[in-house]
Structure formats: structure tokens, C-alpha cells
Design a protein that fits this description.
alpha/beta, six-stranded mixed sheet, about 15% strand, globular
């Protein structure tokens, strides 16, 4: 414990009442209190004037998600409510679910061309436009939500990701994360790498490219169309979001084999895309409020999924879902396919190559540290339960 030090000379003891007094001004608690009261009154008088001078801004936000998927969809309404509350209803964002303005997979286009001012979506949906967008979404065998956030905020990732979004005149602000997503629901067991050959699977992002390397056939279809496709057999498997959402959609009823470990998406960031012209037109304090609201939504979504997923897993397994683990040789093939896909893209895309090199270096440092820190502590604790 540090050694206690004497109080500064401008603290004097008057009958056991510690009163702060500055050497030059003679400022005491009593005079300080009077000043604070006067200052508060002045602020109260100034507040209405400031509120009146603040512009009224009305935006529309389109989401990639239906309202029925309440947790991932909720990021949008959370941002809208906080922005409105913090501006005394001067900055308002009306949120529209997938399909109400544009289809769920066209959010980036709608924001880019100014159809709406902002959208809530997953960047991995748009890798056909620019593969490097995936670095702000999720990659197989990638990083956890904490590691991804560390890369963006303190690891130099933000500048690189912003460089990617500049191509679309979009400002991207983190506003949600699903955490690790299950490897998938399958109609039949997967025992060897050969079982992926010809397998038709709904999977987004670079997971689809990895599946192709293994002989599978990736499909990109909206959430509401997945169950009928599984039921008819036009889909053999699906990777969607988390157990909580997947239970709502009923996947386990027709594709009962639930596989882990959850390595294909160890996190999935769900940012708010903002049209750059609309963002730049905001007063600076509105920009700060928007970012603060998104930061809250980011943590709220992850916490919500963390609370809901364990209960959902218990529920689906009690109803017949079969939780299994991919064999080590299958996981090794998936990892090798992932590296091959990334290297191939880097060979033809300089922007992708630039981001990939930086991302890999940061991931290596994180995995080294976490393997002896949080991850090791967690696995040790779990094994002792």
C-alpha cells in the first residue's frame, strides 16, 4: 500500500471540517457552492436557447433483419431511441425492417445512393462488391468480439476499414455484435470432408467460399426463406445467426444436427452504415451522439445474445436437436481452405492484401496472448465445473 502523504498546504482543518482553500483566491466550500448554484442557474437559462438552436433532423434507417429476429433487429431501434432522447427529439431516426423499403440484402446500395440516410446490416453480405468489406464483418477462424473491437479501436484496423468504406461513400459505425455463431444446422451427419461435396448450404460471407473449396454449394437467401428450403430439401444445411434466432426459425426441426465448434464466425459485427454526405451534414455534437448511441447498441446486442443463447441451446436439445463436433481432420481442412481463399483474394486485390496482412498480424498477437490469458482461464474453469 502506498505511504500516506500529507494533504496539500491549501487544505486547512477548521474544527475537524476539511475545507478546501486555494492559496491565491481564498475559495472555500461555501463560496464554491455559491458559484456552482449561480453556474447551474445560468446553464438552466442557456439550455433552452441551445435546444432551440439545434436543428431538427429526420432520417430513415433500413435494416437487413426482420422484426421477428428481435435481438439482431433491436440494434436499429436502440440507436434511434437513444439519439432521440439525447437530442430532446431533435434528431429522429425512423427504423424500417427488412423489405419495408428495400430487401434485406440491399441495405448498402440504399445508403450509398441516398435512398435512406442509414442502414443496419452485416458487411459480409456485400463481399461481391468489395471482398475487403469482410474484415468489418467476420472471418472463419478469426477473432472474438473483444479482439475485433481492439483491432478497430487500438490496433489500427479502423483506418483500414474506413479506407474500404470510402469506396462506397459510407461511414460505418459499430452498432451490434452477435458473438460466436454455430457452425451450422445439417440435415445429415458430417463425418468426413467428403460429406461436404455437393452439400447445398445457406452461408454468408467468406464461409461460402470456404464451403466451395470443400466441394459444397453455398446459397445466399433471406432468413424467411431458409426453413421452407430445408424442409423441401433444396437446402441441406444452414449457418444463420445464433441458437436463439435459429430456434425461432425452427431449423432444428428439419436439420437436427447442430455442429460446433463455432469457428466459422467467432464474431459478427453489425454496423450502422451512414451515407457520408448525410453524416457530414450533421452538427458535430449530433455526430458524437450518434456514435455514442451505436456504441451502446453494440454492447447491448452482444450481452443480450450471451444471456439468451444458453437457454435456447438447452431448449433445442430437449426437443431433439443433436449437438455434435466436427472431427479434427474436418476442422483442419476447413482452416486450410480458409487460408487458401484469403491468399487467393489477396493475390488479385491490393486493398484486400493490405488489410489482410495487418489483420493477420493482429490476430496472431491476440491468439498468442489469449491462449495463456482469458481463453486458457475460461477453459480451465469450465473443465472444473
Amino acid at each position: 500500500m502506498p505511504k500516506a502523504t500529507e494533504p496539500p498546504t491549501f487544505w486547512t482543518d477548521r474544527r475537524n471540517d476539511m475545507t478546501r482553500q486555494t492559496p491565491d483566491t481564498g475559495l472555500t466550500r461555501r463560496t464554491l457552492a455559491k458559484g456552482l448554484v449561480a453556474g447551474t442557474a445560468a446553464s438552466a437559462l442557456a439550455a433552452p436557447a441551445i435546444a432551440q438552436s439545434a436543428p431538427t433532423v429526420n432520417w430513415r434507417m433500413t435494416s437487413s433483419f426482420p422484426k421477428s429476429l428481435d435481438t439482431i433487429y433491436q440494434g436499429g431501434p436502440t440507436v434511434a431511441k437513444l439519439v432521440s432522447d439525447m437530442t430532446d427529439k431533435k434528431f429522429n431516426i425512423q427504423v424500417f425492417a427488412a423489405g419495408e423499403i428495400v430487401p434485406g440484402l440491399q441495405v448498402l446500395d440504399a445508403v450509398q445512393n441516398g435512398t435512406v440516410e442509414c442502414g443496419h446490416t452485416y458487411s459480409g453480405y456485400y463481399i461481391g462488391k468489395e471482398p475487403a468489406l469482410i474484415f468489418d464483418g467476420s472471418l472463419p477462424f478469426g477473432m472474438t468480439p473483444r479482439q475485433h473491437t481492439a483491432w478497430l479501436q487500438f490496433g489500427g484496423g479502423r483506418a483500414l476499414v474506413d479506407k474500404v468504406y470510402d469506396k462506397f461513400n459510407v461511414v460505418a459505425i459499430p452498432a451490434g455484435n452477435t458473438g460466436a455463431q454455430m457452425l451450422g444446422w445439417f440435415r445429415k451427419e458430417i463425418k468426413t470432408v467428403d460429406d461436404f461435396k455437393g452439400l447445398k448450404m445457406r452461408i454468408a460471407g467468406f464461409g461460402g467460399r470456404v464451403l466451395t473449396k470443400l466441394g459444397g454449394v453455398p446459397q445466399q437467401i433471406a432468413g424467411g426463406d431458409i426453413y421452407p428450403a430445408l424442409e423441401k430439401g433444396t437446402l441441406d444445411a444452414v449457418e444463420f445467426v445464433n441458437v436463439y434466432d435459429d430456434e425461432k426459425l425452427g431449423f432444428f426441426k428439419v436439420a437436427p444436427f447442430c455442429y460446433g465448434p463455432f469457428v466459422m464466425e467467432m464474431e459478427a459485427a453489425i454496423p450502422v452504415f451512414v451515407n457520408k454526405a448525410a453524416y457530414n451534414a450533421l452538427p458535430p455534437h449530433y455526430q458524437s451522439i450518434l456514435r455514442a448511441a451505436c456504441a451502446y447498441a453494440d454492447q447491448e446486442m452482444l450481452a443480450s445474445y450471451d444471456a439468451k443463447n444458453p437457454k435456447a441451446l438447452s431448449s433445442v436439445t430437449s426437443k431433439g436437436a443433436k449437438l455434435s463436433w466436427m472431427a479434427p481432420e474436418v476442422l483442419k481442412a476447413m482452416k486450410d481452405a480458409t487460408d487458401a481463399v484469403l491468399d487467393e483474394e489477396a493475390g488479385r486485390n491490393e486493398l484486400f492484401k493490405e488489410v489482410l496482412g495487418h489483420w493477420r498480424q493482429f490476430r496472431q498477437e491476440q491468439h498468442m496472448y489469449q491462449s495463456i490469458a482469458d481463453a486458457r482461464a475460461e477453459m480451465t474453469t469450465y473443465s472444473l465445473q
